[in-house]
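Q: My labmate handed me this sequence with no annotations at all. I'd like to see what the chain might look like in three dimensions before we decide whether it's worth expressing. Could you predict it?
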Amino acid sequence: MDYLDPLAEVRVAPREDVRRRVESKVRRLKQIAQAHYIYGRYDMVLEVLAKDREDLSNLIDSLHKVEGVLEAETFIVREVVKDRPLDPIIRVLK
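A: Here is what I predict for the chain of 94 residues:
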């Protein structure tokens, strides 16, 4: 089964009411697996699983409709170099 698992980075207006609106929308969107506030140029990073490009496009469009969302940029993985998410956990437990 083909699907897309991009990351989306989102810039949000620096107001508490906007943050609450964005958080509420993110919680309801079924394509979003994880959402994190981050430091840097963007305010949030979203881990997404979309059925196809149209599903991803609809997701981004719905985020842009939230008042206070300033920008969203999507990163689609071109090639996996390493996929061993347990390596750091195993290292810490040793």
